[in-house]
Amino acid sequence: MNIKITMNKDYFEIIRAGINTTFQDLGRKNLYHIGIPFSGAMDNRNFLLANKLVGNKLDLPVMEFAYQGPLLKFNGNKINIVITGDVIFKIRKKNNEIEGNCYETYELEQGDEIDILSTNKSVYGYLAISGEFDLKFQWGSCSVNIKANIGSNEGKKLNNGQKIDISKINPNLEKKKLNYFNSKIENIRVIKGTNFDYFSEEGKNNFFEKEFIVSKLSDRMGMRLEGPKIENIVNTNIKSEGLLKGVIQVPGDGNPIIMMSDHGTIGGYPKFGVVVSADYDRLVQISPGSKLKFKEIDLSDAETLFKLYEMETQNLISQI
């Protein structure tokens, strides 16, 4: 007599996918020459903290969501989850509903649900599990770029009704918590770009002295700004040159665009400046309709700020 043995499979069922839920990790390196940007988690600090809190290697893929996150039902053995960012969420067990706290792990059992209602006056949040999602790598990364259809999940955002398999669960389900507050930033700091002298003195003054509003057209490719026009007095187009994350381009209409993680690798708009790396994580969390201002600093100060930000991040990781 043949006996069929069915293995218990651990997975999440996506009841509601959310507005823009994708898998992200640290992104792809050294592919600019074939037109592939880094991609990866928009908010690098919150990505790293999520993995550390559930006992993972720091580079494992997590779910990134924007504005409204997913509603997930867990099927399988016990697992720990954590959410980082500024997020409102609930965990539903058989006869109990828990108001979730960010930076605190929760144990899920068969049939439990996690409902990520919204990011709270921010944009991106992260869900990590104590284990590994069953994902395909492309060019050494799982990061999804939906405009280019690159990455795991066939390069697409998650959809209702999908099942996300879990290939491994960590045996250690220790409860962990980090007291951390996502601070806001008053001024986004910028260093001069390669085409800074293309712009009038009035245009430069407008950029550093007046407020801008984040456009609703912003996404993982670029943050579009509305406000005073940045006048170009030389040429509104240049020969296409390489771009990088944080570069501020100014097209002919005078409205700046800041390059985000899924930006194109070349562009022909003059480059006014570059947002310093230390401010990028907080920049991406500024929601559409919000106001922001910029402050000019020099390269040496930007390098110092980056070192301090990296040290602060490592100190937070070491507290977990």
Commentary on this structure:
There is one protein chain. By secondary structure, the protein is α+β, with helices and mostly antiparallel strands. The chain folds into two domains: 11-169, no CATH class; 187-318, Cyclophilin, CATH 2.40.100.10. The protein is 14% helix and 30% strand. The chain is built from four helices and 21 strands. The strands form four sheets. Strands 7-6-9-4-1-12-11 form a seven-stranded antiparallel beta sheet, with no helix packed on it. The longest helix is centred in the last third of the chain and has 20 residues, at 299-318. It is elongated and about 65 Å long. Mean pLDDT is 95; it is low at 1-6.
List the helices and strands and how they pair.
Elements: E1 11-16, E2 22-24, H1 44-53, E3 62-66, E4 71-75, E5 79-84, E6 87-93, E7 96-99, E8 106-108, E9 113-119, E10 124-129, E11 131-133, E12 163-169, E13 187-192, H2 201-209, E14 212-214, E15 222-226, E16 241-242, E17 247-249, E18 257-259, E19 266-267, E20 271-275, H3 277-283, E21 291-296, H4 299-318
Parallel strand pairs: 13-21
Antiparallel strand pairs: 1-4, 1-12, 2-3, 3-10, 4-9, 5-8, 5-10, 6-7, 6-9, 11-12, 13-20, 14-15, 14-21, 15-18, 16-19, 17-18, 17-20
- Helix and strand content put the structural class at alpha+beta
The CA-CA distance between the termini, in Å, is: 52 Å
Helical percentage: 10-25%
Largest sheet: 7 strands, antiparallel
Poorly predicted residue ranges? 1-6
Q: Strand order, biggest sheet?
A: 7-6-9-4-1-12-11
The value of Rg in angstroms is 21 Å
Mean pLDDT, to the nearest integer, reads 95
How many discrete structural domains? Answer: 2
The global form is elongated
| Strand composition percent | 25-35%
String of helices and strands: EEHEEEEEEEEEEEHEEEEEEEHEH
List the total number of helices: 4
Total strand count, please? 21
